[in-house]
Automatic annotation (TrEMBL):
Family annotation (SUPFAM superfamilies): Barstar-related
Top-level taxon of the source organism: Bacteria
Organism of origin: Serratia fonticola
Positions of the Barstar (barnase inhibitor) domain: 4-81
Family: Belongs to the barstar family.
Name used for this protein in its record: Barstar family protein
Length: 99
């Protein structure tokens, strides 16, 4: 299982997240950079299995990126073990981890 990390010390806002995501998964300019496009790519276009980890999220960042966090949590359930999603706060402790 490959692992892709997103360091939120390097990601200031939603457009930056979508840029990082498109770069990490080599999506090109056709990626729609919105929640619907993200869902479609995560559940149908990226190579699975994969582990996605969000690093350095504080409470403010969790609020700012809440919709994306929920999307990955739902995708993790939908993909039944082919996607693992974790969040590591600034203190380096895992705050979300499923089997």
């Amino acid at each position: 299982m490959g692992k892709i990390e997103f360091d939120f010390n390097q990601i200031a806002d939603l457009p930056a997240f979508y840029r990082h995501f498109a770069e990490r998964f080599a999506l090109g300019e056709g990626f729609g950079a919105n929640l619907d496009a993200l869902w479609d790519v995560v559940t149908g276009d990226i190579s699975l299995p994969v582990e996605i980890e969000f690093l350095n999220l504080n409470a403010r960042s969790k609020r700012r990126f809440g919709a994306i966090i929920l999307l990955f949590e739902e995708a993790e359930e939908e993909l039944e073990g082919n996607l693992r999603f974790n969040i590591r706060e600034t203190s380096s402790t895992a705050t979300h981890q499923r089997g």
